[in-house]
Structures are given as structure tokens and as C-alpha cells.
TrEMBL record:
InterPro entries, per the entry: 2C_sensor_his_kinase, HAMP_dom, HATPase_C_sf, HATPase_dom, His_kinase_dom, HisK_dim/P_dom, HisK_dim/P_sf, Sig_transdc_His_kin-like_C
Organism: Azonexus hydrophilus
Domain HAMP: 204-256
Record bears the keyword Membrane: yes
UniProt-recorded name of the protein: histidine kinase
GO molecular function (one): phosphorelay sensor kinase activity
Catalytic activity: ATP + protein L-histidine = ADP + protein N-phospho-L-histidine
Alphabetical list of Pfam families matching this protein: HATPase_c (PF02518), HisKA (PF00512)
Cellular compartments per GO CC: plasma membrane
Main location as per UniProt: membrane
Superkingdom of the organism of origin: Bacteria
Chain segments annotated as transmembrane: 41-64, 183-203
EC number assigned by the record: 2.7.13.3
Membrane-protein topology: Multi-pass membrane protein
């Protein structure tokens, strides 16, 4: 036997859980038909705030009255000492056996009660400290009954004065509430009404904003991303509304990117897949070795094109979806630029690719993301490889606080009204599907995303070589 009752434990848990649920029902506004309940929201706030305020007021009143008790006692003693002395002098004019009858006569002349008791009867009414004051000839005050005690000379008799408060006098105010209680009730009633009015004018716009945000969130959850921007009436929910707007806009952009990628990739996949199907049909119908090798080479090229399309699409989607944080490091810029151009020089076939860093200061160091920036530069070079006739020139210069890389070619160039449009995804000026000049229209879009990551930009213009010039520009020192 362990001394515990499993049945009792099982019964206790539901009871505790039920208590917790009851608490949350009171403390949280409940829903009514999918809406926030204004009345419950108001009363929950009112009960919480008013209850806290009343508790704080009573605690503060208790602390202040306790702290001032000594000061109040001293003031009462000095205030009543003259009256008590006059009463004692009047009693001392008569023998002790007449004090009882005489105090009754004097009592009729005062608003509060007077009396005489034996000293030993006060041991149970007063504290030890009050008894010491009384025996020392001082006035003892009993706070629970608002009564004063003063010893009559060296006798065993004690003069009792009080209760001093009219509300504590049993012969007065028998048919109505004490004055101090009536004042307290009136004061707290006024405070409660004023607080309720002020709270109502505060809660109502809060409730309207909650309803607006709830409805907007429901529309977004239903897929309606064109829902109107919530107009809030209080600054309390303004940051939340701004965040909700930003989130909605970001979701729209992601959906647009997803649709764009889906449509673009599905369109781009058709050409290499159609070529591969055609090559397979031709392969099954020929026995010539040279022709079979040519068809195999075509299919391998198509597979390479599909692989490049998938890799490029994933790269673009990552930049659109995640907006990764840049990790800058300082590099010797001339050496870095030469190495990056050399890494893709072979793709230029017979083109003359040169690198010009003569306009850069000697040993210039530039801050860049070593992982992301090569994407931008290599995509510009691949674009130049497609359209250049004979020459490609890569140059760099320092423009104030910014570093700029220019990629020039001697190709057909870009019309001025199309120079901004070419940085959009799946945009190509030529409609050719030939592998020598075709592409997916993602390289320049990736280059611009990389430069935005660096706080810079990518632009297109005309080249001194007669073709197109693409420029990457960003802050040299981040």
C-alpha cells in the first residue's frame, strides 16, 4: 500500500483541469458566431482592471493607516487630554462612591459615551503596550473600538471615553449605514462608473480592429490575397496591421514567382524534350554509326540543357524565396575578378575575353559575398558569350564609395526601351530556341537579385565595343 488512491488522483485531475478551463473562460473573450464578443471583452477588461485597482487601493490604505497609526494616536491624545483632565477634575471633587452616579450626569452632556471600569477588567481588552501606557498615567487608545482609557489618579478606577466615532456609537444611526461606509460606497460607485465609461470608449475601437484583422486573416486563409488592407483605428494594432500587409505582399510575390517559374519552366522543358523524342525516333530507324553518334550527342546536349535549366531555376527560386543574408568578406579585388573570369573563359570558345583592372587603385580590397557574387558575374559573362561576335571586355573602376564591374561585348546590343525589362525572369529579346543563342531568361534576373543582396544594382546600357554593356555596382566597403 502506498497510501495514495488512484481513483482520487484520476478524479482530481479532471477537477483541476475543469478549474483551469473555467478560469480561462472568465479571463479570455469568447467567440460568438466566429466573432469576438464585445460585451465579454469589455467585462473581462473591466473586472480585471477594476478588481486590481480596488485591491491596490485597499492595500495602500492599510499600509498608510498602519504607518500613520502612531502619528494619529499622538494627535488624538493631545486633542483629548484637556477634555479628559476636566472630567477627572470634576470627578475628584466628589467621593469615589459617587463617581458612578456623577459620570452618568456628565455623560449626558457629551456626544460620545463616558464610563468608569475597574483596572483589572482591561487586561483582556488592551495589549501589553497599552496597559503599560495606562499604568504610567498616559492615555491608552483601543483602535478596534475607537475608545480612550485614562487611569483616575492612583485608584483602581479607569475613565472610559468613547467610542468617539459617531458610526461606532450603538445609540446613534441605528437605522442607516454609517457615514464613512456610505462615503466609501458612493466614492467607489462613481469611480466604477467613470472607469466603465472610459474603458468602453477604449475597448470599442480595439474590438473593431480585432474584428478587422480577424476578417483579413480569414480571407488570407481562404486564399483571397487581394483582400483590402485592414484600416485600424488604434495605434495598438498598427504594427500588426503593417506586418500583415507586408506578409500579404510577400505571399503575393512568392505566388507570382511560383506561377512564373512553373509557366516558364514548363515552356522551356518542351523544346529539349521534343528534340530528345525526335532523336530517339531517328535513332531507332537508322543503322549508320555516324548518324547514331550524332543523335546520341544531340540527346546528351539536351540533357545538359535540362540540367542547366533546373539548376538555374532552383537558384532563382532560392533568391526569390529566402532572400538570404549576405556574408561579406574582404578580397583583393583585381585578383578575385581575374580568377572569376578565368573560371568561365573556356565557355567563350574562340572569343577574345580580356580583363582590365588598370583603373583600380593598387591592392584595392572590396567587401563582397564570395558565394553569391560569382553567380552575378558568371551569368553576365554567359550572356555575353551568347551574343558577342569576337570580343568581350571585363573592366572595373572605383566610383566614389562604390565599385563597378562592366561586361562589354560587340554583339547586337539592347534597345534602350528594353534595357530594364531584360532583368525580369524568363525575358529574352530573341525568341530563338537554338542552343547557341537561346537561354531561359533567368541569368540577368539572378544577377540583379545578387546585387540587391549587396545593396547595389545591376543595369544595362550600350557598350563602347558596339554591343551591350552590363554593369554591377555596389558599396566597396560594407
Amino acid at each position: 500500500m502506498t497510501g495514495t488512491d488512484p481513483a482520487a488522483d484520476k478524479a482530481g485531475k479532471p477537477a483541476n483541469q475543469g478549474l483551469a478551463r473555467s478560469f480561462f473562460r472568465v479571463s479570455l473573450p469568447r467567440w460568438r458566431g466566429g466573432r469576438y464578443s464585445l460585451s465579454k471583452l469589455f467585462f473581462n477588461f473591466y473586472l480585471l482592471a477594476m478588481g486590481s485597482f480596488v485591491a491596490i487601493a485597499f492595500i495602500a490604505d492599510f499600509i498608510i493607516s498602519t504607518a500613520q497609526q502612531g502619528i494619529t494616536d499622538d494627535y488624538a491624545r493631545r486633542f483629548m487630554r484637556g477634555t479628559i483632565t476636566l472630567i477627572e477634575d470634576e470627578l475628584f471633587r466628589y467621593p469615589r462612591r459617587q463617581w458612578e452616579s456623577k459620570i452618568k450626569e456628565i455623560d449626558g452632556k457629551f456626544y460620545y459615551k463616558l464610563g468608569i471600569v475597574e483596572r483589572r477588567s482591561l487586561d483582556t481588552r488592551l495589549t501589553s503596550a497599552q496597559v503599560e501606557k495606562l499604568d504610567a498615567g498616559d492615555i491608552a487608545i483601543a483602535h478596534d473600538h475607537d475608545v480612550m482609557y485614562s487611569r483616575l489618579g492612583t485608584s483602581s478606577k479607569v475613565l472610559v471615553v468613547g467610542p468617539l466615532s459617531a458610526s461606532r456609537n450603538p445609540d446613534e444611526h441605528k437605522e442607516r449605514l454609517p457615514l464613512d461606509l456610505r462615503l466609501r460606497l458612493l466614492t467607489w460607485s462613481l469611480i466604477g462608473v467613470i472607469f466603465a465609461i472610459a474603458l468602453w470608449f477604449w475597448v470599442r475601437p480595439v474590438w473593431r480592429d480585432l474584428e478587422t484583422l480577424r476578417q483579413t486573416a480569414r480571407d488570407l486563409g481562404d486564399g483571397n490575397f487581394d483582400a483590402p488592407t485592414p484600416a485600424v483605428h488604434t495605434q495598438l494594432f498598427a504594427p500588426l496591421a503593417d506586418t500583415l500587409n507586408s506578409m500579404t505582399e510577400r505571399v503575393r510575390q512568392l505566388l507570382a514567382t511560383h506561377r512564373e517559374l512553373s509557366c516558364g519552366i514548363s515552356h522551356e522543358l518542351r523544346t529539349p524534350i521534343a528534340r530528345m523524342r525526335f532523336a530517339l525516333e531517328m535513332l531507332s530507324g537508322t543503322d549508320e554509326l555516324a548518324e547514331r553518334q550524332r543523335l546520341w550527342a544531340m540527346m546528351e546536349a539536351d540533357l545538359d540543357e535540362l540540367d542547366q535549366l533546373i539548376d538555374t531555376s532552383l537558384t532563382y527560386a532560392r533568391f526569390e524565396r529566402e532572400a538570404p543574408e549576405a556574408h561579406f568578406s574582404s578580397v583583393r579585388f583585381a585578383d578575385w575578378l581575374s580568377d572569376e573570369v578565368d573560371s568561365v573563359r573556356l565557355l567563350g570558345r574562340q572569343l577574345n575575353v580580356t580583363v582590365d583592372t588598370t583603373q583600380l587603385p593598387e591592392n584595392l580590397c572590396v567587401d563582397l559575398d564570395r558565394k553569391a557574387m560569382p553567380y552575378a558575374l558568371r551569368n553576365l559573362l554567359r550572356n555575353a558569350f551568347k551574343y558577342a561576335s569576337q570580343e568581350i571586355r571585363v573592366s572595373a573602376e572605383l566610383l566614389g564609395e562604390q565599385i563597378a564591374i562592366h561586361v562589354d561585348d560587340d554583339g547586337i546590343g539592347i534597345p534602350e526601351d528594353e534595357r530594364e525589362h531584360v532583368f525580369s525572369a524568363f525575358t529574352r529579346l530573341d525568341r530563338s530556341r537554338d542552343r547557341s543563342t537561346g537561354g531561359y531568361g533567368l541569368g540577368l534576373a539572378i544577377a540583379r537579385r545578387v546585387l540587391e543582396l549587396h545593396g547595389g544594382t545591376a543595369v544595362a546600357g550600350s557598350s563602347p565595343l558596339g554591343g551591350a554593356r552590363f554593369t554591377l555596382r555596389w558599396q566597396a566597403h560594407q
